[in-house]
């Protein structure tokens, strides 16, 4: 469906032929699928014939979601997982053996940091962190003969670092390794990492793809060769499959993804402009601001800067907590990418496991507040944060 526009593909991409046909993708809430005979069963298990075997490996509803995400991310195929972390784990598990290494930006989600820094260490693999990911030389120096892939989250959570994806992709190709891009924050509505040169795209579909905090999920988008290997290998013996109902909820979210992302961007820049002029705010991290160091790069790579922003207050960690506790309308939760605005204190929640030293390296001070700007009236979002800031004056 490459000849069609994004919104058309979001509504029709990857659709299978269901009987009877339906306006909404049917939910196949089943763990097994009867075969016509033993010969057919063997052929499907060997991937010699299309078909479904067991719910942990494949499902018709999940398949539509996978196909639609592949169409939107401009990849050959995709495989859905139970969460974003499950997607990253399964992919890295597939690409790494004992003694192997990976090179990654340290500007990543706290769970990703813990998986790479602690989880893979226990399994005999090593991460080489790039603590100045703006520097291509720093990336090059962190690559060794044992490096199996480069990993970047762009924009990053919560500091909103933006990577030069084409430059990283060229570096990856020079070293004959794939570049994996986490596109959770922008979604394919605002950014296409593959078109910029990345080889593999991962998402926590729990966030913007679903859009209303009702469904956990993750996805890996890449070549047919990679996805087939994942489905026939680690998906079968690890089992991080996405539930059919969750895939159905994600499909509903995709149908209006670009409309939501446009409103997210509008509301976020309104809030960012307000915060940048507030006397109690030391700095604002949002690539849509002309004062932001990633402003020009963001305009080249993205159609919009999404809804995630963070700001540092002039005060203490306790003051940051006071602001959050003083909110009357906005939600305090450890989540992002929903229709409702969510405010979080990363240093004590989502990124706390990194520890003070690593958080400092990643640009996450204890006075930083993260905001996932929702779809409420922008005046109401700004008004609630304004009255909360007044509590620390």
Automatic annotation (TrEMBL):
<dbReference type="InterPro" id="IPR000277">
    <property type="entry name" value="Cys/Met-Metab_PyrdxlP-dep_enz"/>
</dbReference>
<dbReference type="GO" id="GO:0016846">
    <property type="term" value="F:carbon-sulfur lyase activity"/>
</dbReference>
<dbReference type="GO" id="GO:0005737">
    <property type="term" value="C:cytoplasm"/>
</dbReference>
<dbReference type="GO" id="GO:0009086">
    <property type="term" value="P:methionine biosynthetic process"/>
</dbReference>
<dbReference type="InterPro" id="IPR015421">
    <property type="entry name" value="PyrdxlP-dep_Trfase_major"/>
</dbReference>
<dbReference type="InterPro" id="IPR015424">
    <property type="entry name" value="PyrdxlP-dep_Trfase"/>
</dbReference>
<keyword id="KW-0663">Pyridoxal phosphate</keyword>
<dbReference type="GO" id="GO:0030170">
    <property type="term" value="F:pyridoxal phosphate binding"/>
</dbReference>
<protein>
    <submittedName>
        <fullName>Uncharacterized protein</fullName>
    </submittedName>
</protein>
<dbReference type="InterPro" id="IPR015422">
    <property type="entry name" value="PyrdxlP-dep_Trfase_small"/>
</dbReference>
<dbReference type="Pfam" id="PF01053">
    <property type="entry name" value="Cys_Met_Meta_PP"/>
</dbReference>
<dbReference type="GO" id="GO:0019346">
    <property type="term" value="P:transsulfuration"/>
</dbReference>
């Amino acid at each position: 469906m490459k000849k069609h526009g994004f919104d058309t593909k979001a509504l029709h991409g990857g659709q299978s032929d269901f009987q009877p046909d339906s306006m909404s993708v049917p939910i196949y809430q089943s763990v097994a699928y009867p075969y016509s005979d033993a010969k057919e069963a063997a052929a499907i298990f060997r991937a010699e014939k299309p078909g479904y075997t067991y719910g942990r490996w494949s499902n018709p509803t999940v398949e539509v979601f996978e196909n639609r995400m592949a169409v939107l991310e401009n990849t050959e195929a995709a495989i859905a997982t139970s969460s974003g972390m499950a997607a990253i784990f399964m992919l890295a598990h597939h690409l790494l053996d004992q003694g192997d290494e990976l090179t990654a930006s340290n500007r990543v989600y706290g769970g990703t940091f813990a998986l790479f820094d602690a989880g893979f260490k226990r399994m005999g693999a090593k991460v080489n962190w790039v603590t100045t990911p703006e520097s291509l030389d720093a990336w090059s120096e962190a690559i060794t003969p044992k490096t199996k892939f480069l990993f970047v989250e762009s924009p990053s959570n919560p500091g909103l670092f933006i990577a030069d994806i084409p430059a990283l992709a060229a570096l990856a190709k020079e070293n004959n390794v794939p570049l994996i891009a986490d596109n959770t924050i922008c979604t394919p509505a605002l950014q296409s990492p593959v078109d910029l040169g990345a080889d593999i795209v991962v998402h926590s579909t729990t966030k913007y793809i679903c859009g209303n905090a009702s469904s956990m999920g993750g996805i890996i988008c890449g070549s047919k060769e990679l996805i087939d290997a994942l489905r026939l290998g680690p998906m079968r013996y690890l089992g991080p499959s996405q539930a059919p109902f969750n895939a159905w909820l994600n499909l509903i979210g995709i149908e209006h993804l670009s409309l939501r992302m446009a409103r997210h961007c509008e509301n976020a820049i309104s809030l960012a402009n307000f915060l940048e002029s507030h006397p109690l705010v030391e700095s604002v991290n949002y690539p849509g601001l002309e004062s932001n160091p990633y402003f020009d790069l963001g305009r080249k790579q993205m159609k919009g800067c999404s809804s995630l922003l963070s700001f540092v207050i002039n005060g203490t960690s306790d003051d940051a907590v006071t602001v959050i506790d003083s909110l009357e309308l906005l939600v305090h939760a450890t989540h992002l990418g929903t229709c409702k605005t969510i405010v979080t204190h990363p240093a004590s929640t989502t990124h706390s496991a990194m520890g003070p030293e690593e958080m400092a390296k990643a640009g996450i001070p204890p006075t930083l507040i993260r905001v996932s700007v929702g779809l409420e009236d922008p005046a109401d979002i700004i008004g609630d944060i304004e009255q909360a800031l007044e509590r620390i004056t």
